[in-house]
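Researcher: Re-running this chain for the archive, since the previous output was lost when a drive failed. Same request as before.
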Amino acid sequence: MKKRVTLTFPKRTVQMPLTYRLAKDFNIASNIIRAQVAPNQVGKLVLELLGDIDAIEAAIDWMQSQEIGVSLASREITINEEQCVDCGLCTGVCPTEALILEPDTFKLSFRRSLCIVCEQCIPACPVQAISTTF
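Model: Regenerated structure tokens:
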């Protein structure tokens, strides 16, 4: 089971070795999608959790008991096809190759299943055809 979560850390828990604890205590693999963490400041972390559904739920309960805010990330990338000019600038910043230019048509193709919603494509789009939805 895969689940994407956004974590908000209070100042006192920012230095907790969270991914280590998830792996060791709950047997959960975690992929860090985005991180904004600094000592003595509130931190935010977007994680993709991979493991048994019961273990993921137990880990979420544990994180909440540590006063870490947990919210399920349900955002998705959307592309306005009428605005898109198929320039391909977004393909150069996409780390998972979810955005590609089709070699025979040179039209932008979005492979949603590969997208990790890192949002790097949004500022790369010169016509602002890419956005996120909740």
